[in-house]
């Protein structure tokens, strides 16, 4: 018998030996698994979160941190600062996401540009 199979069997025995452990395992196995990767419908939301973090840290009192985030802000704006450069399929993915729909885009587009804030 393979060493891996023996380890799995021992683990199963260990989990089943305690009702509390078995209950925790059963609960964990029923949990909804989410993706570890940013999918297209989450991408815009993550983008806005990054924008807000950069914006908050550029006004930081610590000069080193402020200088670092200003560099990040210029790189961020290079790729994401102009909506004309953003692939419009990203917006299509957001519109089809039932959690956000069109309201989400309208809200973030009105608040994303610093001139409108």
TrEMBL record:
GO terms for molecular function: DNA binding. It comes from the Eukaryota. It holds the Pfam family hAT-like_RNase-H. Signal peptide: none annotated. Residues 36-115 form the hAT-like transposase RNase-H fold domain. This is hAT-like transposase RNase-H fold domain-containing protein. It comes from Dorcoceras hygrometricum.
